[in-house]
Every structure is written in structure tokens, then in C-alpha cells.
Amino acid sequence: MGCVSNLFKDDSVSSGHVVGVAVAAGVWRTFDYLWPADFIAPEVGMRVRVPFGRGDRKTLGFVAEINRPPGQRKLKAVAELIDTTKPQLDGKLLQLGDWMSRYYLAPPGMVLAAMVPAAVGRTAPRTETVAYLLAEKADWPKAIGSRQRRFLDELFEARVQGVEPVPVEQLLAHSGGSRDTVRRLVRRELIRTETRPQILKQLNEQVAPDPFDLNDDQQKVLAAVETKLAGGFSVTLLHGVTASGKTEVYLRAIRRVIADGKQAILLVPEIALATQTLERLTSRLPKVAVLHSGLTAAQRAFYYEQIRDAHATCVIGPRSAVFAPARRLGLIIVDEEHESSYKQETVPRYHGRDVAVKRAAIEGVPILLGSATPSLESLHNAQTGRYELLKLPRRIHSLPMPTLLLVELRKEITHGKIELIGRTLERKLAQTLDRSEQTILLMNRRGYASFVFCPSCKWQLQCEQCSRAMVFHRALSLAMCHYCQATAAVPRACPACGKKLILFGMGIQRIESELARKFPTAVVARMDSDTMSSPKQFSEVFDRFAAGDVDILLGTQMVAKGLDFPRVTLVGIVSADTALAIPDFRAAERTFQLIVQVAGRAGRAKRGGEVVVQTLHPSDPAIRFALKHDYAGFTNYELPQREAMGVPPFVRLVRFIVRHEKVARAEAGADTLGKYLRRLFVSKNDVRIDGPMKAGVFKIRNLFRFEINCFCPAAGVIQSAVVQGMSKLRAEVGAEIVIDADPAGLL
Known about the structure:
- The protein has 20 helices and 31 strands.
- With 747 residues, it is of the alpha/beta class.
């Protein structure tokens, strides 16, 4: 048996000996297995399948130790060797995985499993199954399961966007369906499927010339970055206002790395949002490998092979691309480093930006973090000397920043009407349409209505599994829980008193309906996670918008980042207050970032641009600073408040959630854990423990939740103290423990 602190020992051994295996399960130790004599010699990091748990179910594992002493117990044998030649993870990536396990308090086998896609290193299928929609929406049966309806809705949206057929694999991932869902829909003749060969797109070697010369600001930043390329590990924070040309700096820095015979990794928040960035990079860099969730198993395996063998010069992808097996790594870039989507919400709960910094340190290479609104954590690191700060303070071509107009929504809405587009925004929209120019509208809330509500008795439609209101989705004709994805039909009348129900609150689908009513001739495209299930669908909408075929692009926060359309002269923020209502110390920061980022989509050409910001809280400091694009003013206001509160970035936070289907068991377990933590840190005056207390969302998926928050000025102190007792602790608590180091949210 081994533990986290001595994983990945590398001693030579001949076949037929005992190896320690880190199993991809919620266990904090390694397990000994016999290595079959007919396997090649084991190496640390090799993937295997081993009989594990009740029933000896074949479970993924990683060789963590070799040449273990045989002992007296009869051992099970490794059932299957997945990596039949070499491990997919080299020594540096194994070191990164070991650090992640200890810092994020995640079982080592589960960490390593997250670092290597299952398809890599195996014979991937060379065919794929795609689906076609046979029935029009009006002909769908009313008596149909929620998963089947979501599958059909995803396929319908794809047809509307012109990207049918859609791979079944993608539709299942986004709808939550199963193979049985597909079989039922085929039997009902609502869809048809076909299997076709996959064509693996080869890496492009053609390189387009530079479209323009860098300005003085860009040249200075690029020169500073190039100086870092030969100097080992360093962290540079690039604060560049929107449209200042950060991507061009990234591109030329990567090109320098390639010229030196090395590889680069560029992380983006969500790959589908980076379509324009991708087009620019893939056209001007040779052999770019793009990793994203929409890849088939065969495509993913192909790209990983190209990266590992150094045929790919640059890797672009979301947070998981930080694990790309680039053996000649020379530079890592994290674009939009402030984005919360870099944080994974399931085990291992890592932050892609911070793991990228750690990987750069292990590899001995520089890392560049870029943003128009850097996170306060990164800014604090720059202010304390851990990072170097570089700036691009002006837009390229000397373009002015867009003008922001603040509108108090209460004064703009007709009394007695449910309207979300005020008179000022409506007038500006009409003027923009008359000039044949384009508009981007942001409404950062999915669905049609936030509540299904009875005004007579105050009854509210709530999720049976979660302590949250269900959101009505008009496209599905169902209410949906955004925490567990459960759906429910909306009652014809209030179940409590029998009176009429109303759909109350703001949602993006309601805006869509209002636009159709007020501007019936305008072409509107909606972009949110309910309508977009693949990068191909994002690309289709982007292409239509770029060609001028769409007048208004309506979206959630997806439209706030990375879009560059010269004909966009108006941006409307329908409700700037959405994030402010969330009980989280980062609420003001996220509000400021969202307004500045989406405002940056306007005025990216000589036509200029303006931004209408609708709000119910016109005096809020975050909104006021955002109106002036005043990042320095906002951070000078916000940082002292954070320091006085004793919250990040001035301390590190580790959040413990104890959950159980019985509320008494959850509460008792949280009490046990709280006492354990207080005993553990009784001599450390700088560790502050808050809780246990009910979590912000008390019940999710039928599990009651209590939280304990631990604060400490130094990184890793809490984790180092807790990690050695994890197995025993989980048994004593008697309920599930969820641990989140540096959480992105507190609900």
C-alpha cells in the first residue's frame, strides 16, 4: 500500500512482480497488484485496468509504484494494459498530477484520469453515428420523455443553424440522454441515424502573412515577452484594454517559440467562443492542434498523437488543454485569465490558470496571462512582485473606447407591463437597424422566466431534488432546474389554490420574444447554452453575423468575450445587476468584468460605438467604474474592502461541503468535520474557520449540504495538514465530503 506523498517512485523491475496502482476512484491510497509475466515491463504512469471493489469490476488505474514487496496476501493481477508501449504521461506531467492531488485534495487516480482522455492511446473508431430530424416541431408527441424532448430540441436548433446532421455523441452529451433515448426516437420515427466514416483533418501547414505592423505598445510588450522565452520560468500578466491587440501579441510570441523548435499551449475560456481567434491563429501558424469537447474519440486520439510527437507546434483549447503532452514546451498563454470557466466544478476541482502556472514552473518555461479585466488574484500577485505586469493601455489604430450610457430601468418601463428593453435601448436599437448596422445584446440569464409563481397564495414551482426555483424554458415548454437539469411540466393552475399562475422574472428567451414583437423584421440570433451544443453551431452563428445576415446577436455571457465585428456599433446590457444579486464576495468584480468585456465588443472600427447599460442599481460602484472603463479605480476601491473582510486575494480559501440525503446525517457529519479541523489548526492563529453552516443552495440532487470555509494567508497550508488523514476522515464523518480549494463560487 502507498500514499499520496510517495507516489510515482521509479525503480526498475522485470515482469511478473508487484506494482502499486492508483485507481481512478475516490480512494487516497495505492493498491498492490501482480504484474502478468506476458506484459511488457511496467513503467510509472502506465494506464491499466484492474479488478477493484465488490464484484471485481474492471477499473481504470495508473501504475504509481513498481517493484513493490510481495507481502503475504494473495494479490489480484492487473487485468489489462492500456498503454502497450509507453505511458501517455511523462515525468513532468506525473509531477504536475501529484501536486494537483495534494493541492486540490483529490484522489490521485482521479487526477491522472482527468489528465488523459480515454480515447488516447487506444484504437479509436473510424466511424461516427449522426442524427437527422424527421418530424417538424409541431408534430412532436406531447407525451414524450424530457430527455427525448431535449435531444429533439438540440437537433432542431442545429437544423435552424444549418449544421444538421449532428453527431449523436454530441447530442447525448448536451441533452443528458442515453443510447436508449436514441433508439426510442428512431422507433417513433422522429429521427433517423446513419453511420459514416470519419475524416481526420490533417494539420494545416500553410501560413498567411501578417496583415499589419504592430504599434509601439504592442512592440514593447512583445519585446518584453520574447526576452522571457530564453530565461526559464516566469509569470507575466498582460493587462490590455479591449481591442488593444493582445491576440496579435500572442500570435507573434508563439511564432517565435515555433522558430526555436518548441511548442506552445494557448488556453481559452471556452473553445467555441474563440472562433475568430482560432481562425486568425490557424491561418497564420503552422500545424495548430485544436482540442475541445466536440471532438470525436478518433479526432482526439489523432491530435494527442500529433502533439506528443511534436508534429503539432501549437495547442489551443479550454482548461483541459493544459495537460496536452507537449514534450518540447516553450511557452504557455492563458487568454482571458480572469474567466471563472477555467475552474472545474467536478473532481478534480482544479483551476486551469493556476495549473498552467504550476506546469510552467515544472517545465521551466514562461507563462503569459492576458485580460482586459485581470482577476484581483492575478493583480495582487503582480502588485506583490510574484508576476511582472505589462500593459496595452490603448486600442489599436487609436480607436476610441465606446461611450457607455447608464439607464435606470425603473424609469424606462411602462407600468403594468413585463418589458426588459427600456425606451432608451429600444430607440437606439431602431436607429442602429435603420443604419444597417449591428447590435449585440447581453442577458446573462437562461430561460424565459425565472419563476413560475402564483400571485394569490405565493406558491412557487420548485425542483423536488433541489431547494431552488425552476426556470421556464419556452422552447421545451417545460420548467428546468439549472442545478440538476431535472424538468417538469408547468401546471395549468396553481396546485395549492387553483388560481392562475404567472411566469415572472427575466430570461433570455423572454428578450427574444420581446425583440420579435418590437422589431418583427430584424433578424435575431440567440446564443446560449440552450441553443449551442457544438463548436460547429457557434461557428455557423458567427459566420452569419460576420456576413451581415444577422442584425441582432442576443446572448448570455458567451457574447461578452473575444468577438470582433466591425459593424457592431451598439451593445445593450439588458440587466447589469444579475451577478450583484449573488451572495458572493466576487459579485462586484464579476459585474465590473462583464460590463467592460461586453462593452468592448462595440466600436471596433472607425464607425465608433455606444453601450446602453440598463440597471436597477445605478449608484453601485462596480457599475459606476465600469461606465468609465476605470479598472484602476475599481481595483483601488475593491481591494481594501477584500482585505478588511479577510477574503481572497489576501488569503487562500478551502471550502468543505458535507452532503447527505438525510439532513441530520449531513449536519452531524459537518459538525464532526468542523471539530476535527479546529483541533487540527488549534495552534495556528492565522487559520480562520467559518462554519459549519447551511450552504447557499441547501439542497441539490436530493442531497442536503452544509459548508465549512477555511481561510489562511499562505497557499497549501490547509491542504498539507488535511491530506494525510483523508481516508480516515471520510469514514469518521459518515457523509460525503466535497473539497474545493480556491473555489470560484460560494453557492
